[in-house]
Design goal:
By secondary structure, this protein is an all-alpha fold. It has eight helices and two strands; from the N terminus they run αββααααααα.
Length: 201
Amino acid sequence: MARPATEIFGVQDRILEGASQIAIVLGASLFVALCARIVLPLPFTPVPLTLQNFGVLLVGLALGSRRGFAALALYLAEGLVGMPVFSPTGPGGLAQLLGPTGGFLLSYPLVAGIAGWIFETNFLRSKLGAAKKSFARAAAACFLAEICLFVCGLSWLAILTHSLATAVRFGLYWFVFAEILKIMSAAALASGWQRFHKVQP
């Protein structure tokens, strides 16, 4: 007995939706890889200044916690198998995940997930107020996600250097101003897109 046309169309719609979501996650991982190519090596630290974590924050805000986490997990898998998605200043592959920036890299799925979860829920509504524009929530989400990024990154650096003070000197001091700019930029883009999306018919 032939299945009803509505059931067939429903299956096709689910397949198309699944393929669309896979394409979005893959595209997001490649966007972070593109951000990783914009890098400024610093002579006084083994950690380069890069737009990588700006891409991570923006992906988390734009895709939400689940897809953001998935996109960055895929990004790490791409790098692990040797695809040139990490910063070109490093050795690539597993060696890069075990190097000075490994703690930062391995935290990326969590960072995107945290930023996305906070931005997509009303977690901060009691603090910011329901009437506040989404930029404040986006910026707060990025700030809290960055705490996770630096806790993981500096912890790994401290293990490698056997000194928390050295880890902080290498991995934090030189990046504070740039991180503020990245947080503000990612929050502005995400909240702007959200407002634009809301006014669409």
